[in-house]
Amino acid sequence: MSDDFETIAIDEARALGEGLLSAAGYSKDHARTITDCVVRAQMDECHSHGLYRLISCLELIERGKVDPAATPVVEDRAPAIVRVDARRGVSLSAFEAGLPVIAEKARHCGLAALAINNCFHFSALWPEVERIADQGLVAIAVTVSHAWVAPAGGSRPVFGTNPFAFAWPRPGKHPFVFDFATSAIARGDIELHRRMKTPLPEGTAINADGKPTTDPDKAVDGAMLTFGAHKGSALSTMIELLAGPLIGDLTSAESMAFDDGAKVTPFHGELIIALDPASFMGQAARDNLKRGETLFDAIEGQGARLPSARRYRARARNTRAGVMPVRKNVLDELRLRAAKHQNKTI
Amino acid sequence: MSDDFETIAIDEARALGEGLLSAAGYSKDHARTITDCVVRAQMDECHSHGLYRLISCLELIERGKVDPAATPVVEDRAPAIVRVDARRGVSLSAFEAGLPVIAEKARHCGLAALAINNCFHFSALWPEVERIADQGLVAIAVTVSHAWVAPAGGSRPVFGTNPFAFAWPRPGKHPFVFDFATSAIARGDIELHRRMKTPLPEGTAINADGKPTTDPDKAVDGAMLTFGAHKGSALSTMIELLAGPLIGDLTSAESMAFDDGAKVTPFHGELIIALDPASFMGQAARDNLKRGETLFDAIEGQGARLPSARRYRARARNTRAGVMPVRKNVLDELRLRAAKHQNKTI
After folding, report:
1. ipTM of the assembly?
2. pLDDT of residue B346
3. EC number(s) on record (chains A, B) (predicted)?
4. Hey, is the C-beta of B321 within 8 angstroms of any chain A C-beta?
5. For residue B7, what are the β-bridge partners?
């Protein structure tokens, strides 16, 4: 472990998270769901979506955007659609409220959708699709973000970093899971290159004139690019449509307009689809899931990695140890905030 | 139009296609659905999936693989799932049989799936998702092919060229549609480079040792790559799982084993998902579809193209003219085959 990291016990991380969020005004439910999500990410050493994100959640309150006590409202829209209105709360409580309903609907109808509306969204999508796969269901999740990414052949930002996540249940194993941004680089990486004054990788951004650039400052004035040229651009368009107009929520451009310079986490919707292998295949579903294993063996058998393998290894290591590594500067800031609050309330 | 092309009237193309397929043994239904699909593609100047594919369909019979008179069997699996067993026929008649059922189920449940099993599949996916979007529904379609493509970080073929298609209905306009292979290059393009003895584009293939190559012969001994590195590889894995084990059908590796050197079009399954905007949003669906238009305007307004724009322009042009351009060598072969049959039957 590098010098930039220190470890924190799981229980201590939970107490720190829930304490900070509650003190800031989040309801018990939000404090619990947010903490659970960032602790899961931290245990997997997914640092960009770990404890660090507690700070964004505190800023959401400080900048007057979020309703920290919002109670999600579950609406049964159709036999296979459940909608959860997050009512300007963070998305995670809305997901918790919708999870049992989408699972039941998927088992009954064969597949089902969960539309989360009016939520602030800071989290990775893999914890959600993994939760669905843990119930033996296949899951797809998409959401938009802020308009930072230009379409292929264009020069101005339209799309968000628009992640696409997928999970497939594996009998007796962690599910096969991927969760990637359709942008060529993460937004946070652009900021990192700015601070470090290092060039961006080729092919990740354009300047304000639409010309390729590796200068992170010029990229911020211009736009990020999607991965995979016109194919990634097409996928990103699809995600705007599915997580925006289809479910009656904001596109990345609309989310950015809503943000209005507050620079907080995006406000928008999320679409999750769950598919039930047993409904498709009945008794044969079990054997068919095994045929999925043959595919994974063919991939791993030639030395290629499954997308979730690194996270799962970290999870196993940290679960055994009962602690997780966190960047020192993140822990310092969280503990400073906790101490400040302690002083205030004494 | 280049010298390599000549035009053929729409009615003549239909008569040629249906005549050839019927003479070869296809049932009236298969002859009609196959011809309709290749004529649509040809009208859009999508030459790789146009009249040229009639030849593959004839070879399918000549090599004893397809059942040219198979009647698809529709099975209502669950409130939101319809399965159509193509019974070793070409996929298109199975799609026709399933289309009204998936549309009705999507309207009732909010979303629905059509699983087509045991089919030979040669066609592009865009004609199918476009047909669904013409009914006001959003559509996603995936299918596998033959194992030609290596996973990111690997060296041996596991995936097919695994296309992903999407359609979004646009009031008063052709739907927004994309349909792309998750391979970095089309299989047909590799063959073209072999014949022309020209190098492949960089980053599209590896040799038998897993090293990058632009030599098309070495690529055939090695493997093609996915687009978008590990992200494209993840998507391709998802497509294997959704169109294979989820619906109880073959993966690309299994399809290739089934082919057993016959070198015909892949035999496997296809998964189509349809989502109903009206079920998600009720009365607000119409306004939300308009918000999709704002997104398209933002893309096209900066000079970027929507993925289906070129095809739609060709369609408009050829529909006005009542004729379509076809490669001369393709028309020559089709007419030669038609004449041979004529002589045989006189």
Report:
1. 0.96
2. 60
3. 1.1.1.338
4. no
5. B325
- Judged by CB atoms closer than 8 Å, whether chains meet at A299 and B158 is answered as yes
Structural fold of domain B1-69+308-346: Hypothetical Oxidoreductase Yiak; Chain: A, domain 1 (1.10.1530)
A153: chain B residues, CB-CB within 8 Å: 303-305
Point out the residue among B237, B280, B295 whose CB comes nearest to the CB of A240.
B295
Tokens representing A71? 């109670």
- Among chain A residues, the shortest Cα distance to B290 is held by A245
> Does A7 have pLDDT greater than 70?
yes
Q: Which residues of A touch B227 (CB under 8 A)?
A: 228-229, 231
In angstroms, the first-to-last Cα distance of chain B is: 36
Percent helix, strand, coil in chain A (nearest 5)? 50, 20, 30
What letter would DSSP give residue A181?
E
Which residues of B fall within a CB distance of 8 Å from A299?
A: 151, 154, 158, 237
> How many CB atoms lie under 10 A from the CB of residue B297?
11
The pLDDT, as a whole number, for residue A110 is: 98
pLDDT digit string, tens, across residues B132-143: 999 999 999 999
* Cβ–Cβ < 8 Å for B143, B161: no
Nearest CB to A245: which of B238, B244, B289?
B289
- DSSP three-state, residue A55: helix
CB contact under 8 A, A298 and B253: yes
What pLDDT shows up at residue A30? 98
What is the number of other CB atoms lying within 10 angstroms of the CB of residue A322? 10
Per-residue pLDDT at B4: 92
Report the pLDDT averaged over residues A107-123.
96
- Topology adopted by domain A72-183+226-307: Ribosomal Protein S8; Chain: A, domain 1 (3.30.1370)
Question: Which tens digit of pLDDT belongs to each residue from B293-302?
Answer: 999 999 999 9
User: Is the CB of B231 less than 8 angstroms away from the CB of A228?
Assistant: yes
- Structure tokens of B302? 């900066």
Find the angle CA(B73)-CA(B60)-CA(B184) to the nearest 5 degrees.
Answer: 95
- Chain B, 120 to 139: residues with Cβ < 8 Å from chain A are 138
Kindly state the average pLDDT of the residues B260-279: 91
The arithmetic mean of pLDDT across residues A264-291, rounded, is 92
A245 touches chain B (CB under 8 A): yes
**Residue A64: predicted pLDDT:** 84
Q: A41 in helix, strand or coil?
A: helix
User: What mean pLDDT comes out for the span A62-86?
Assistant: 96
Which residue intervals of chain A bear CATH 1.10.1530.10?
A: 1-69+308-346
Q: pLDDT tens digit string along B48-85?
A: 899 999 999 999 999 888 999 999 999 999 999 999 99
Question: For residue B277, what are its two tokens?
Answer: 């905007």
- Identify which of B22, B41, B18, B19 has the alpha carbon closest to the alpha carbon of residue B326: B41
**Cα distances (angstroms) measured from residue A7 to each of A32, A50, A174, A330:** 21, 13, 24, 12
- The burial class, CB within 10 Å (0-12 / 13-18 / 19+), for B213 is buried
Q: Is the pLDDT of residue A346 over 90?
A: no
- Give catalytic status of residue A189 as yes or no: yes
